[in-house]
Specification:
Strand order of the largest sheet: 2-17-8-1-7-6
CATH class of the largest domain: Alpha Beta
CATH topology of the largest domain: Alkaline Phosphatase, subunit A
Radius of gyration: 20 Å
CATH superfamily of the largest domain: Alkaline Phosphatase, subunit A
Largest sheet: 6 strands, mixed
Oligomer: single chain
CATH architecture of the largest domain: 3-Layer(aba) Sandwich
């Protein structure tokens, strides 16, 4: 079953509600359930994002009586593609993917004539750092919500980005570091907006699959951690969500389909379940037919125009660079397959970025610490 993004009830809506709370309209619909909670005033607004902790994973590994499930407010939508490299810029910018244009882990930049891993600022499948600049920040940088909130509140509200991808010294690489930083910040009597990102349970599911016992232990640990923080913080609203969910996958390889490979101008990029194709001019009319002969049951192949017509990347002012990243087509996973270029590529047990319910549905969990 195909699950399209719903940007009116999504992770973008969550950040829209938070911006609205601080007095800024980003042009996107906020969430009524969150707006209702935010009618109250809090000393701290804490937005906690756990990578990959989709609704299906929570329901699989937690009981209804567990803390996170007791505070489960709603099921909301990820963005498209349903991947961290697209979702994090959505949260950090308050913009839809069509506006910020960060679509996936690897993206083709014509300025370098290469696929670049945007978060690492390296060439694809390489640890070779690009020395002259941070490519994504240079060509598709955005005004982040942390600065925006400080500006619209004239500095009254302090903002904190506690993430492994943070440009500040507040970065955290583990749940324990995140817990320590949040508690330290909450002791300050000022108003604070605190954003935290932790890469679990995504990392362990990529390695072991969504059903593994260690995943269950990981999710239960997150549940206890959020409970602990909620009991330690006063006068705070804690909002917990994920960037996407995951689905167990089987890997197939483009090198096994040389006829299709020969139709391409260059190696695809974005994600293994949201793969773009730059097609040679002489094959543009037949590529879709040939691709669907092989992959129609597992992938939804859409042209650039079809993607925009369906608003898969949301609405707003179209980023001038996005056409270069989309290519001629994108194949979105709708089954359990992932496409790697060749057998040398990294193997994973579970993945994301496709259009299934497991990947697209994420939780909205809301905790008023005054009521805990």
């Amino acid at each position: 079953m195909i699950k399209y993004p719903d940007y009116d009830k999504s992770i973008l809506s969550v950040i829209s509600s938070i911006l609205k709370y601080y007095g800024y309209n980003n042009g996107h619909k906020s969430l009524e359930v969150l707006d209702e909670k935010l009618k109250n005033k809090y000393e701290n607004i804490v937005l906690m994002l756990f990578d990959g902790m989709g609704v299906s994973t929570l329901k699989k590994h937690l009981k209804p009586t567990d803390f996170l499930m007791q505070h489960f407010a709603d099921t909301i939508s990820s963005v498209c593609p349903s991947t961290t490299a697209c979702a994090i810029p959505t949260v950090e910018s308050g913009k839809a993917p069509i506006e910020h244009s960060w679509l996936g882990w690897d993206m083709y930049f014509k300025e370098y004539d290469a696929n670049i891993t945007v978060f690492k600022n390296t060439y694809q499948d390489s640890n070779e750092q690009i020395q002259d600049c941070n490519v994504a920040r240079k060509y598709i940088g955005y005004h982040n919500v942390f600065d925006r909130i400080k500006e619209i509140t004239n500095g009254r509200v302090k903002t904190h980005d506690i993430s492994k991808y943070s440009d500040t010294d507040e970065s955290a690489y583990s749940c324990e570091e995140m817990l320590r930083r949040v508690v330290e910040i909450s002791k300050d009597p000022s108003e604070d907006f605190i954003y935290t990102y932790v890469e679990e349970p995504d990392a362990v599911m990529h390695a072991l699959g969504t059903d593994h016992e260690y995943v269950k232990e990981n999710v239960k640990y997150i549940n206890s951690l959020v409970c602990e923080i909620s009991e330690m913080l006063k006068d705070s609203l804690i909002i917990v969500m994920a960037d996407h969910g995951l689905i167990d996958t089987q890997t197939i390889y483009m090198e096994d389909y040389p006829k299709l490979q020969d139709m391409l101008e260059r190696r695809p990029s974005i994600e293994t379940r949201a793969l773009n194709f730059f097609v040679k001019e002489e094959f543009k009319e037949i590529f879709k037919t040939e691709f669907n002969k092989v992959f129609e049951k597992d992938f939804l192949l859409l042209s650039k125009d079809e993607i925009y017509e369906k608003n898969l990347f949301g609405t707003g002012e179209k980023n001038p660079k996005i056409d270069e990243f989309v290519g001629d087509y994108i194949a979105f996973g709708i089954g359990d397959k992932a496409i790697e270029w060749n057998r040398d590529d990294f193997k994973m047990a579970a993945r994301h970025a496709g259009l299934t319910k497991e990947e697209m549905e994420v939780p909205l969990i809301v905790i008023d610490t005054n009521e805990v």
